[in-house]
Amino acid sequence: MSGLRERFVVWGLMAGVCLWLAGCSSTSLNRAPVEDRRNAAQKAAMDPNTQAVKQPPGFENAGKLGYYTVKPGDTLIRIGLETGQNWKDIRRWNNLDNPNQIEVGQVLRVVPPGANGAAATTQTAAVTRPITSSTATASSVPPPAQAASAAKQPASAPQPAAAAQPEAAAANGEDQIAWNWPVNGGSVLAGFDEVKNKGLDISGAAGDPVFAAADGRVVYAGAGLRGYGNLIILKHNNTYLTAYAHNQSLLVKEDQSVRKGQKIAEMGNSDADRVKLHFEVRRQGKPVDPAKYLPAR
Question: Is domain 59-120 given the CATH code 3.10.350.10 in the classification?
Answer without folding.
Answer: yes
